[in-house]
Amino acid sequence: MQQATMTGGDGKTYRPAADWRTQTSRGKKRFTMCKYAHATLGAGNVARAVKLPDNEDEDEWLAMHVVDFYNETSLLYSTIMEKCTDDSCPKMNAGSKFEYLWADSKTKRPQKVSAPKYVDLLMTWIEEQLNDEEVFPTRIDCKFPSNFRQVVTKIMQRLFRVYAHIYHEHFKDILRLNAPAHLNSAFKRFVLFCKEFKLLQPRDTAPLQDLIDKKLLLSKMQEAEKAVKEKATPQYMLSAKMPIAAPSPRGPASAAVESNTTTTAAPARAPKKKPEEKGSMCLMM
Ligand SMILES: [Zn+2]
Fold first, then answer.
1. How close is the Cα of 232 to the center of ligand 1, in Å?
2. Quick check: 117 and 207 in contact, CB under 8 A?
3. What are the mean pLDDT values of the chain's consecutive 10-residue runs (285 residues total)?
4. Exposed, middle or buried, 128 (CB in 10 Å: 0-12/13-18/19+)?
5. What is the span of the domain harbouring residue 217?
6. What's the total number of domains in the chain?
7. What is the model's pLDDT at position 228?
């Protein structure tokens, strides 16, 4: 929930965070919903944090998340922006297989632009949507437009490209900043939210599909292990004479995941790393 002005690594201003417009009742409500989502995240439950709470309006929930994801992605990009220049990144790519061209209502045909230029155009375009009362209404008497879902989908598609560029082209910079855990947790929430509301198609997520698959697999593994532990605990308490051993953290699911990481850049160290870090390594090939 970033509200302050963001700055890059050299301290220069990048762009202000989107205004929550808490002076309006709807803006205030969205900010309150955002605090609830972050409190749930803080409790470690990412899957629940993205789910629509009972009796809440889905469009309001989507609107709140779009503002929050915009702010978070901008902030993440600002940490590596001094490394992302016209010289270092002359095109907006995600590895060698994916390149994005910029197009909007002002361009006649898709344009090839540098990555920093693309991100700037992208963030400016999103900002315009967020500030458009016809698209993201904050007055209580205004309704969301009939194409609201399409606008949200477009915004999330474009924000995903920033993650794709950061992971493929700037992961070494993220490592230098000691920030992979922050990037991974932000991306995991982003992906789970898009999955929950079916906002992205396989063609959108293709540049990071390996990473997504591994992360979702890791989440399933962690949930399974947690369920085993919860089930085992009361049995242990009731069977004092024959205690049941605590489940091994390296069960069959763990072994399966680790075998998948043998093709990564640092397989020798993978068994000692935390699951989040192992998942991230597949993009360092
Ligand atoms: Zn770049």
1. 48
2. no
3. 42 62 78 81 82 91 94 95 97 96 89 96 94 90 93 97 96 92 92 95 95 73 61 38 35 30 31 36 27
4. exposed
5. 212-284
6. 2
7. 59
Distance from the alpha carbon of residue 173 to the mean position of ligand 1, in angstroms: 10
**Per-residue pLDDT, 108:** 81
Is 188 found in the same domain as 235? Answer: no
Centre of ligand 1 from the C-alpha of residue 77, in Å: 9
* pTM of the entire predicted model: 0.71
Is 217 found in the same domain as 171? Answer: no
CA angle, residues 107, 75, 62, in degrees to nearest 5: 70
Are residues 46 and 87 both part of a single domain? yes
Residues 91, 115 within the same domain: yes
Distance 199 CA to ligand 1 centre (A): 25
Q: Of 200, 229, 257, which marks where a domain is finished?
A: 200
Is residue 207 a part of any domain in this protein? no
DSSP characters over 149-202: HHHHHHHHHHHHHHHHHHHHHSHHHHHHTT-HHHHHHHHHHHHHHHHHTT---H
Q: Cα(162) to centroid of ligand 1, in Å?
A: 9
Q: In angstroms, what is the span from residue 84 Cα to ligand 1's centroid?
A: 4
Whether 170 and 83 map to the same domain: the answer is yes
Chosen domain end from 169, 200, 231:
200
Q: How many A from CA of 87 to the centre of ligand 1?
A: 9
Q: What is the CATH number of the domain that holds 26?
A: 1.20.140.30
Ligand 1 centre to CA of 115 (Å) is 5
Q: Tally the C-alpha atoms within 13 A of residue 54's C-alpha that lie toward its C-beta.
A: 0
- Whole-number Å distance, alpha carbon 71 to ligand 1 midpoint, is 18
